[in-house]
């Protein structure tokens, strides 16, 4: 975050302003996993006192976006390999359920049309760059969750769609891995559109299993020890 990018407080409390600014910085990738958040720098950049900055750290820690090392520093959260694998494993089960439920909705023409509109980008050809892929990936998985008909399931999946994971892995994801993922998205989508819940669930699990295999093969330097 630089002086030139510093936003100005408007409506709402100073605390909410600091929390929102840091949250957006993290979720947009401007603040990256492992990056230190220095109180003195933030008070100067945001034009606030230390109190709101410290409280914002506590709030963002509760959201899983930052982590604090007592008497040392606060940084944007960086996941260990074990944590990341566990999250993918949990997602596989929840999203397989969502895919089965979504496939059951395909007899509803309006629901099918909404789904087709939401996942439209997966059928397009575009450069295999990490940043646009991350956004497309998030939208695709959330579209399936939203179609599941379960608000609680959709909310759980949304919470596990952690942008931090993608930003942490970004530099190690190859164009071929991105293409493989897009191809898998297309197979998942087609199974849902065909109303084949069993196949859709199996494709989701295979997709996230490949993500786990990719994480397993990555160097230890990417992860928190």
Automatic annotation (TrEMBL):
Q: Name one GO molecular function term.
A: DNA-binding transcription factor activity
Question: Does the keyword section mention DNA-binding?
Answer: yes
Q: Which PROSITE patterns match?
A: HTH_GNTR
Q: Which domain of life is it from?
A: Bacteria
SMART domains recorded: FCD, HTH_GNTR
- PANTHER family found in the cross-reference section: TRANSCRIPTIONAL REGULATOR, GNTR FAMILY, TRANSCRIPTIONAL REGULATORY PROTEIN
Tell me the first and last residues of the signal peptide: none
Instruction: List, alphabetically, the Pfam families matched.
Output: FCD (PF07729), GntR (PF00392)
What is the protein named? GntR family transcriptional regulator
- The keyword DNA-binding is assigned to this record: yes
Record's InterPro entries? GntR_C, TF_FadR/GntR_C, Tscrpt_reg_HTH_GntR, WH-like_DNA-bd_sf, WH_DNA-bd_sf
Which intervals hold domain HTH gntR-type?
12-79
Biological source species: Achromobacter denitrificans
Q: What's in the keyword line of the UniProt record?
A: DNA-binding, Transcription, Transcription regulation
